[in-house]
Every structure is written in C-alpha cells, then in structure tokens.
C-alpha cells in the first residue's frame, strides 16, 4: 500500500489462499466503492493539513483549533475538486476526526429532511448544503437522556406575535452533550415541549438560531458553551459537545418542524395525515449509520491487533531461531479470530440495513398517505419498516457491545502495549458505543417495536389456543441431529440452532412472565432475561445475513471459501460463548456443544494463514489507522522508538520541576523519616 | 462524609439495614485500619497541593511537573508528621497519582530486599529509604515483555577491572516501559543476561546508576527518555514510563544482585544454596499488591456507579412525580450488583493473600537453607509458597479481568455519561490491568506452578491405576441434589458446584489432551480450553475465601447478613454467566441453573435498599473518588454545570480559529459544491 520500504509482513501476505483484491470488493460492496474509498483515502493521507500524529500532544484549545482548520480545508478540497456527495462523505470519513461537521451532515440535515415540510426543506437545506449556516442536534438535557419524552425545555406559542418562546425552566433542562453546539453551530434543531394555550403537546423539533452570523456571538437570551474536556487524549476532545440555556428566546412559528404536527396561526395544534411511523425514518437512518460506523471502528481495531500479533514474537525460541509470533498461540487466535469474523459479519449486516432503509423509504414514498388509514399503513409497507427498526435496534446493541469487546480484548490482550500508548482507533470505538445509543434501552425497543413480547405473552396467557399449543410443541421439542464436528459447518445446522435458541429463550421468558400477577410486573422483573432474549434474537439476524451473503455470487479465487470460514467462526464462537443458552433450551446436547468447540479450533487453523490478508482487505491506509503497531509494513520497533523522542517531555534532558521538586529531595533537605 | 450541604442521597442511607460503621471495619480489616485510612484521606483531601480536579486540563509537561510537586510535598508531609510506614503508604494511595515514587517503593526497594545480599541491602536500602537515590525497575524491553528469559541486554563480566559491562546490543533490547525511568530515576535495577568468560548464565538483576546526583544528566554511555504520551487524559501521563539504552556502561561487580547467584572475583558463576523458589517472594509480593490495587480500583468504579445510578432518574414518571431511579431497573441491578459483590470478594481474597504472603515468608525464614537440599525444601514450606503463587497468579488474572468488566460496564451502561467526561477511577482500572501482569500468560502459570496438569494427564495416560479410576468415578458422576431456589443459598451447595465444575472441566481437558500425539501438542492446541479451566479454578478460590470470611465472627448489626447476601450474589451471578460450564459438566441440570437465576433476582432485591450504604462502607472521600457523578452528597447536576465553564475552551465566547476557519466558510468564499 504505502511507501517503498521493506515489508516485514510479506511472508504473511504470501501465505494468503485467496485473492485480496477481490476480497476488497466483497468488503466494500463493489469495485466502484473500492475505487472511491481508495482515492479519497490517498487524498487525505497525502495532504499535510490532515496529519493526525500530533493530536496526543496538543492542549484542548490547539487541538480544537486544528480541527476547525481541517474541517475548513476539507470543505475547500471538496469544492475545488468538485467531489460528489459519495466522495465528500468518504473524504470526511478518512479525515477521521470527530468535529462539528459530523453533526451538521449527520444529524441537523437529516432532521430537517425527515421532519421538515417541503417549504422548510426548500428554505433551510440549501443554506445547510452550502454551509452558510452550521447546525447541530440539541435533544439531550442535563437531566434527560434516553427518556426523550421527559425533556423539560419548553416552546410556548405566543399567538400575539405568531412566535414560539423557547425557554429553559430549570437547571436540568439545560441542553447537555450536543456535538458542535459548544463553540461552532450557528443553528440547532432543538427538541422541546410544545405548549399552546396552556396545553402540553409533547416533544417537537424547532430550528433555532444560536449565534450571530456576523460576529458569532450568542444571540440575546442564549447561554452556550462547551461541557469540558472528555476522557481519551484527543478523540472526542476535538468535538465541542455543548451546554445551552434559553431565556425566553423567540422564534417565528414557521421554525417548528411541521411535517408531522403543525401549529396554526391561531395556535391550534394539528396532526398531519403523514403516519407517525414515517418519523422512524430519521431514526432508522441514524442507527444504520451507527452500525456502519461501529463496524468500521471494529475493523480498524482488529486490523491493528492482527498485524501487531503477526509482528510481535514472544517465547518459544529454539537455538537462536526467532520467537513464536503471538498470533500462533491458540489463546490469541481464540480472542482475535471471532472479532475478525465479527468485523465481516457487521460489515455485511450493515450493508443489508442500508439496503433495507432505501427499500422501505422508497416503498413508503410511493404511497399516498393522505388516503391511507394509519392501521392499514401499519400492516403493509410499514411492517418491514418496523422490522427494520427492530433489526437496527438489536444490531446497534450487538455491534456496540461487540465493539466494546474488541476494545476490551485489545485492552488486556494482544495489543496490551497499544492501549496506553496509542489509542485512536480504540477511542473511536468508545465514542461509538457511547454516542447516541443507549444500548440497553435500545435493546428493549425490540419488544416494543415488534410487539414480539406481547405476541409471545398472548400465547401463554390463560386462553391458549390449540394452534399455539401445536406451534410451541413443534418448535420446542425437537433437538439437533448432529453427530460429527463437521456437521457444524452446515449453514442449515447453524441457522436451526440459532433459531431454536432464540425462540425457546423467548418462550421460557414469556412463560415466566405469565407467572407474575400482572404482565407489567413480569416484564419489569424479568427485564434482564428479556435482554438476553433480545441478544439471542439479533445474533440470529446477523448469522442469517452472513449466511445469505455467502450464498451470493462472489467473485475471486478463494474469496467465497474464506467468507464461509469466517461465517462459521462467527457462529460457532457464539455457540461456545452462550453455550448455557443453547444447551439449557434443550436443542443441543453438551456433547454437540463440545463438537462445536472442536470444529472452531479447526476453523481457526484455516483462518490463520489468511489473517493478515483478511485485514488487508479492509484497505485502510496507515494514516487512517493512525497506529504504529498496526502499520501495513509491520516496521513497528524503529517507528515506536523514533516517535517516543518527539514527546514534549523529551524537549529537555532534565525535566521542568527537577530543581524545585526532585533535587531538594535527593539532597535530603528533609529529616529522616521513621521508616 | 464531607461538607455540610444537603445530602441528596439521605433517603437512600436511611434505608440501609446494617451498621455502616461496622461494615467499614469489616471492609478495612480492623478499626485501626479504618482510622489510619480516614486520617490520611482527610489529610490529603484538605491540602490544596493535592488538588486533582485540574488534571484534565494540563498539558503533558505541566501535568508531569505537578506530579513532581505532589511527590515532593507528600514526602515533606510524611517527614514533618513523622508518619509510620503504614500511614505513609496510605497517604500515597490517597494522593492517587501514578508517579515515580510508586516504582521506587513498589518495585525498586522490594527487588533489592528480595534479591540483594545482606551487605547489598545494608548499602542500598538506607539510601533508598531516605530517597537520596530514586530507583526504578527496568526489566521489559522494546522486543521482550512476558518472556523475561528472552531479554537481550547483556552484562558481561570484565575480570580485568572487576566490573560488568552493561550493553544494549540491538534496538529491540532497549528498555521500554519502566515507570519513573524516563525523567526521574537516578538508579535502576536492570535485568540483563549475565555473561562470564563467553558463557551466558541467563537473566540477573543489576543496580545501575543512570543519572548524575549533581545535575541529573544521564551518565556517559546512557541514553534515556520518556516513551511518550499515553492514552487517557492524565492518569498514566503523570508517569515517566521510559526508554533506556546502554553503550558499554561499566558498573562494579558488587552491583549485581547476588542473593541467589554470584559472580566471584575470578569471574566464576556460582549458585547460592538459597532455593530459587525464594525469588518467588518478590513476585508474590508484587502480585498481591496488584490484586489489592485492582480491588481498590474496582470498588472506586462501583462506588461511583452505584451512587450515580441512585441519583439518576429516567422514565416512569407518573402525574408529575419524579422519574424512576435507574438503580431500580432490574437490568441495571443485574449489571451493578455482581460488580458490587465482586468488589467485596476481591477485597477479602486480597486480605487472605496478604496473610498468606506473610505466613509463607515467615515459615521460609525460619529454615536454614544452607542445610536443606532443594528437593526437600520443595515439599515442605515451599509447597504452600507454590500454592500461593498459583493462587495469586489465578487471582490476578480474574481480578484484572473483572476490573475490565467493571470498566466495560461503566462504559456502556450505568455511567455512560461518566466516561467521556470524567474517568479518573476508570483510567486507573485500565492501567491496573495493563501493568505488570500479562494476564493470559499468568493464567498459564497455574498449570506450570502446581504441576496440576501433569497430574491430571498422568491420570489419563495409558497406565491408569484403579485408585485413579475410582477417584474420577466418584468426583465425576455425582450430581447436585437441589430442588428449590433457596437451596442455592447454602454455602455447601455453592462450594460443591464450583468444585465440581473446576475439577470436571480439568478432567475433560486432560482427556482431550491425551488424544493428541504428544502432551506438548495437546497442551498448545487446547490452551484456550486450559485457560477456561484456570478461570474456573480461581473463581472457586475466590468463592471459597468469601464463604470463609462470612463464617468469621463479624461484629455489627446486619453486617454478617449483608456479606452473606453479597457472597451469594457473587457466586450465583457466576453460575449464570458460566452456565454452559456448569451444565455441560453434568453436575447441575438446566432446571437447577434456572433456579439459581431466579434466586439471584431475590438477592438483588435484598441488595437494593443497602446498595448506597454498601459503597459508603468503602469510606472513600470525594477527593479520592475524583468524580462528580460519584459525589457523596449526590449533588451532581449543579456541579457538572459549574465545572463545565472552567474548560479552557470556554475562556473566550468566540473560539480561537473562528476567524480563520469558520467565518470564511459561513461567508461562502468557496464555490458551491456539486451536492
Ligand atoms: C459522545 C457523545 C455525543 C453525543 N452527542 C449528542 C448530540 O449531538 N445531540 C444530543 O442531543 N445528544 C447527544 N449525546 C447524548 C446522548 O444522546 C445520550 O447520552 C443518550 O441519549 C443516553 O442518555 P444519558 O447519557 O442521559 O443516559 P441515561 O438515559 O441517563 O441512562 C443512564 C443509564 O440508566 C439506565 N436506564 C435508563 N433508562 C432505563 C430504563 N428504562 N430501563 C433500564 N435501564 C435504564 C441505562 O443503563 C443507562 O445507561 C451524546 C452523548 C455522547 C456520549
Ligand atoms: C502502565 C505500564 C507500566 C509498566 N511498568 C513497567 C515497569 O515499571 N518496569 C518494567 O520492566 N516493565 C513495565 N511495564 C511492562 C510490562 O511489564 C509488560 O507490558 C508486560 O510484561 C507484558 O509484556 P508486553 O507488553 O511486551 O506483551 P507481550 O509479552 O508482547 O504479549 C503480547 C500478547 O501476546 C500474547 N502472548 C505472549 N506470550 C504468549 C504465550 N506464551 N502464550 C499465549 N499468548 C502469548 C498475549 O496475549 C499478550 O497479550 C509496564 C507496562 C505498562 C502497560
Ligand atoms: Ca489529554
């Protein structure tokens, strides 16, 4: 990839049993996607303004200023080169620095697109597209996160002036966390309780200007600032997550986002005939983005970990031969390879979600909602929307959880050294998992969205019908017929096992809930169990999408074979990890579980010679990875050594503070202690 | 605890069903221990020099200088107040900032104590005790971590001058990571390959002066510096982890640590009759410290998480009532309470290890080793030493792993907000897990140290004796007789289940190993499974030590009862987590597993009213916790808000960089993009 220096991992790359270029296409989705990513990644990597390696050494202010510089430069390049939307968003990905632009493009624009009327879109979107205004998404408050319905900020309609008065009545109503808010945004979509004529109509979105377009000072009645330095050198400290308070700030009535609900000139609150489910659109979009971001973060971490594990040698040297590569240790493989497989699994499920989002959006737009009764809409096109929300909710949960696992694994295990030394990729994972998603709460959505639980509950509540009995009987009493370890390689076997586990856990849980005096009580008492059902459910989705992917027509020598292996690694490592679920629901025996584990070892052996090539297929530049341990050429040690000397602490041989605080101590100015 | 302001958690504290003051004693070990900790914690908290809250805002150099200042001030106070060793080390704990002193007292001094001869101790320890020299522990090299036997630095004896020549022959032989080395230490214990007369005698320790005691400049032939900024704002950046290279540096012969091996004036290499196992002493000491540090870090994180979960409210508000405290959600409890129980479990097992270390040391010192053949020594007093090493190895592994779990949990779950905003306690956990311990490698020690595996192997290799058959039969075919959820509360039931799981997993593993052509191959192929056996083994130790603790005579209303509940939470949450192990070894049935999970819910309900009081019993000051979310008085929101404004980014309303990088963009100096 880069440079012309010696490739210390060449011996690994030669061993690959598949066509890496073809795998790049399978990973990226198309030849076109590979090309665009490749061009944008090189563009960024070769531009000195986008240098990343000094980030750890900058104070908050310099770090932040440097981010502003990068954002402006990126925008200039996007314009100069007349990049397409696809190219521009790729370029931003490779600039790889959280900043106000992410919220502008990722939340502010989609909110207006999703919740604004046609006129509102016509007015605001061109300004936003040209960045003549910069926007953020101001929902979360100091006292209110997951519970959006509990927000306290008010937007009270004043019919006299045809305005809304935006106000922060309490300390806990201060907006808190929105990215881009602290120092940069000129505008925000602010979520607030709509009040007309003394009546509370719940949460709605409003476009509010925050700062003067002339001198950037906050407008009257607005107090705004940054919430302070966050954990992790740099990363989210390049972002101005902000705090915001309103003191009776007035905005015109037409700045309420009115696609779904409106307030008339007279102050009447009206619901439009656009089905509320359409609002899910933005949510689906945002969550799908999160899944895709998380899979990116996971693959970066895995890429670093695999390469460094191939470079790093420890123990096992005999008569002067080099030591064993740590990637050859089975313990290392059992930590790394499931995560490598997960990176691929998430990539494919993310692509599927993107497709689903487009598909659902198109189908919805084809309908004329004014003529569709809401109930009808629910069954037809909306059914798949709901499914997608569910899927996304579940997947977001799993993906974020798994990102944490890779973070954790990197932590203790293979890149022990990485973590305290260089952690860009990992910090990103962290940010990912924390941002926007309240995982547990999201997982609970599954039940709410699909009505899955009430469906199951209905099965076990007193009036059991014969059909339902039959259904339960069929799906709950069979067991897996499998005698040899190789049988675990069959997609049908894997799929059945995951299906059986998911449905039986759910059935058990529903049975237990039915024992409580009320459904609510059971639901709340057993919520931890429900969570486990949710996890089982979404792992099933991921496994089945991976299996579908492998069935597709995939080009390139060995590519399909390797994807099949990764798919099996992903599934069987989950069987091992959740063995208690699989066995206790009675579908598989302990013996069969042991066979899965045995098969897993054989699969690891098949992954091993391909491991480095499999992470090469992500096609990440060294600039994007931002990790010495993960360098493409494996030339780790000289670079680590070289970098160390650049630390400010090495500016002088004798450190600042020596004369005041160390020398007196050594020269024993103190009396001898009693020790 | 501090201040006189309103206690927002008073309603929680009133609910406690036990005597918190008595629990403090149970936690700390004695009334005396509580008093010392209390005095030292207040001393630190009330001293402005020890302020911690500006750490996030300092650049590396200022941060480091500030640490030097704190260390000097602590030393001055220790001397002025004529503190005892116990008090001094408590004070250092509460200063709570990693620094060169930790390595000086924690590694340099113990290494000399453990590996130095009496004369060497007499010469060097007084200098170290008075801090007339400052030392570090320089073992790890750029290319060599866990594999100490692979170190490349050489110490070649020169009989002409009666000196050793310390040399770094390669880049990878550079010392890399030692704390305190980068900028401060005047001396180091350096580990290097001893070479006499062309012969390599393996790794030995040497006391080497690194810097001038006059002007602190590195001595001739020595290149030394800091390895650079690490991940996490502050925390380990207060430490000067260092890099060090030697170019033929000469030291007198008597600076080799010669308790175990000597080099004579003539250059002869001699092994002393002190059994090598004695060397384990330092290792045991250091590992025991790590267990205790890790339990401290875990309890801090849990304290913050529990308090914030009691303050934080989300959802469930009805008719204007406040929302539900998030600690009331069962999902939250199922994440928090096992960790709370683990904090107690680790505290007690740590105390037990400390006792074991003292006991073993005393017993060893009572023997006259010059008359003891090594083989003999192995069986007698040393047997318990080996056990302790094993125990410590295993426990270190588990504790560190669990600290990561709490870190992880904090991450995604209850203190979502904490992490990116304030992470002192958590960073410490991180450092803990990464430092000194290579977890996986350590876990492998179990088998090596106890010979446990070869014991098991011998059972299944061809020559099976009748006795062994019988043993296996007895211990492997029984199963748990348990019908009601309450039966899971019996210590005997818990202990049996953990024992059966540990032994059966080991037996299965040994059986599988015996199927391989050679034992080595089996060992290496199944190392991931062996690791799981190791984990089962050390969880058994922790559970059994917790059970022992509860059996002791414990004072105070309700204290014993609460500890019993926590012990059961610890054990049953592990049964649930590792259900696959427990069921597949055939000792418990899926039904019994479900009962354990059911019982766990009842236990959570019993913990709930006591949760805040249980973390209060750790007796941590707000200064030590260093967390706004974890404040004793629960007054979170006003303080978060207040702190935000202190960030450097809020120094000006319009940020640095606005005029260069934001205004031109808003004023549309660029041509319109194609988007
Ligand atoms: C990096 C970052 C960037 C962000 N950017 C933005 C932004 O641009 N705009 C914006 O508006 N917001 C932003 N946020 C805020 C984000 O939306 C919230 O953090 C998120 O909604 C979760 O809310 P919370 O942090 O208040 O957690 P809370 O809702 O207070 O939850 C705390 C914990 O309580 C538990 N809990 C809560 N409710 C329940 C329940 N019903 N059942 C069981 N357990 C429960 C959960 O375990 C949860 O972890 C950002 C946050 C971060 C970390
Ligand atoms: C904060 C911090 C402070 C430190 N302070 C000091 C100090 O004061 N003095 C000092 O001398 N050192 C210090 N160290 C270094 C520390 O001792 C090493 O990090 C530790 O010994 C692990 O070595 P390593 O990092 O080189 O990992 P490696 O040994 O390279 O291991 C890398 C990975 O390879 C795998 N692996 C290695 N061997 C095997 C095997 N046989 N089987 C299976 N898997 C294997 C493991 O998963 C491991 O995680 C410090 C480190 C840190 C992070
Ligand atoms: Ca920093």
Automatic annotation (TrEMBL), chains A, B:
SUPFAM superfamilies documented for this protein: Acyl-CoA dehydrogenase C-terminal domain-like, Acyl-CoA dehydrogenase NM domain-like
Residue span(s) of domain Acyl-CoA oxidase C-alpha1: 280-391
Acyl-coenzyme A oxidase N-terminal domain: residues covered: 19-134
Biological-process GO terms, alphabetical: fatty acid beta-oxidation using acyl-CoA oxidase; lipid homeostasis; long-chain fatty acid metabolic process
GO molecular function: acyl-CoA oxidase activity; FAD binding; fatty acid binding
Keywords assigned: FAD, Fatty acid metabolism, Flavoprotein, Lipid metabolism, Membrane, Oxidoreductase, Peroxisome, Transmembrane, Transmembrane helix
Record-annotated Acyl-CoA oxidase C-terminal domain positions: 491-667
Record has Flavoprotein as a keyword: yes
Co-factor requirement: FAD
Residues noted as binding FAD in the record, renumbered to the chain: 140, 179
Protein's cellular compartments: Peroxisome
Name of the protein in its database record: Acyl-coenzyme A oxidase
């Amino acid at each position: 990839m880069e440079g012309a220096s010696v490739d210390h991992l060449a011996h690994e790359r030669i061993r690959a049993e598949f066509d890496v270029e073809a795998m790049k296409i399978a990973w990226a989705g198309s030849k076109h996607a590979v090309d665009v990513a490749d061009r944008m990644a090189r563009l960024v990597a070769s531009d000195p303004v986008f240098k990343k390696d000094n980030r750890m050494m900058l104070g908050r202010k310099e770090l932040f200023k440097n981010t502003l510089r990068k954002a402006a430069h990126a925008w200039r390049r996007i314009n100069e080169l007349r990049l397409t939307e696809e190219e521009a968003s790729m370029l931003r990905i490779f600039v790889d620095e959280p900043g106000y632009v992410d919220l502008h493009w990722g939340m502010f624009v989609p909110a207006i697109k999703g919740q604004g009327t046609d006129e509102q879109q016509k007015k605001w979107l061109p300004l936003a597209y040209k960045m003549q205004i910069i926007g953020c998404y101001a929902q979360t408050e100091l006292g209110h996160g997951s519970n959006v319905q509990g927000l306290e900020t008010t937007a009270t309609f004043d019919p006299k002036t045809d305005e809304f008065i935006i106000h922060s009545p309490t300390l806990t109503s201060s907006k808190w966390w929105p990215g881009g808010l602290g120092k940069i945004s000129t505008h925000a979509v602010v979520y607030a309780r709509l009040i007309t004529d003394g009546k509370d109509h719940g949460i709605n979105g409003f476009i509010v200007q925050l700062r003067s377009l002339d001198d950037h000072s906050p407008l009257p009645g607005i107090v705004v600032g940054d919430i302070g330095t966050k954990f992790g050198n740099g990363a989210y400290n390049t972002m101005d997550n902000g705090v915001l308070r309103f003191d009776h700030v007035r905005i015109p009535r037409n700045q309420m986002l009115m696609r779904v609900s409106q307030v008339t000139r007279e102050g009447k609150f009206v619901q439009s005939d656009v089905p509320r489910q359409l609002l899910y659109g933005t949510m689906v979009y945002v969550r799908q983005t999160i899944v895709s971001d998380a899979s990116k973060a996971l693959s970066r971490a895995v890429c670093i970990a695999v390469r460094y594990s191939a470079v790093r040698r420890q123990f096992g040297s005999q008569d002067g031969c080099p030591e064993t590569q740590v990637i050859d240790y089975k313990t290392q493989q059992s930590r790394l390879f499931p995560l490598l497989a997960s990176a691929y699994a998430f990539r494919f499920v993310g692509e599927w979600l993107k497709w689903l989002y487009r598909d659902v959006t198109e189908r919805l737009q084809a309908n004329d909602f004014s003529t569709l009764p809401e109930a009808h809409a629910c069954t037809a096109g909306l059914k798949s929307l709901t499914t997608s929300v569910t899927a996304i909710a579940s997947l977001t949960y799993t993906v974020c959880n798994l990102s944490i696992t890779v973070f954790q694994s990197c932590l203790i295990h293979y890149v022990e050294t990485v973590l305290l030394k260089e952690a860009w990729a990992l910090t990103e994972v962290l940010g990912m998992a924390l941002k926007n998603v309240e995982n547990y709460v999201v997982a609970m959505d599954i039940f709410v969205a699909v009505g899955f639980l009430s469906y199951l509950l209905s099965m076990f509540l007193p009036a059991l019908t014969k059909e339902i009995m039959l259904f339960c009987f069929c799906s709950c009493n069979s067991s897996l017929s499998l005698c040899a370890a190789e049988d675990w390689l069959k997609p049908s076997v894997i799929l059945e096992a995951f299906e059986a586990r998911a449905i039986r856990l759910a059935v058990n849980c529903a049975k237990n809930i039915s024992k409580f005096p009320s459904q609510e009580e059971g639901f709340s008492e057993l919520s931890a169990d429900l969570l486990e059902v949710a996890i089982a459910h979404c792992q099933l989705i991921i496994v089945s999408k991976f299996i579908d992917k492998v069935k597709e027509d995939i080009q390139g020598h060995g590519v399909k074979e390797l994807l099949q292996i990764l798919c099996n690694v992903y599934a069987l490592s989950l069987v091992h990890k959740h063995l208690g679920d699989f066995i206790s629901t009675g579908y598989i025996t302990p013996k069969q579980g042991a066979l899965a584990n045995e098969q897993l070892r054989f699969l690891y052996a098949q992954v091993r010679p391909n491991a480095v090539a499999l992470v090469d297929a992500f096609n990440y530049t060294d600039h994007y990875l931002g990790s010495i341990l993960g360098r493409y050429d494996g030339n780790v040690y000289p670079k680590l050594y070289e970098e160390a000397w650049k630390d400010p602490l090495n500016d002088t041989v004798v450190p600042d503070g020596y004369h005041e605080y160390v020398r007196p101590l050594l020269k024993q100015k103190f009396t001898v202690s009693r020790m």
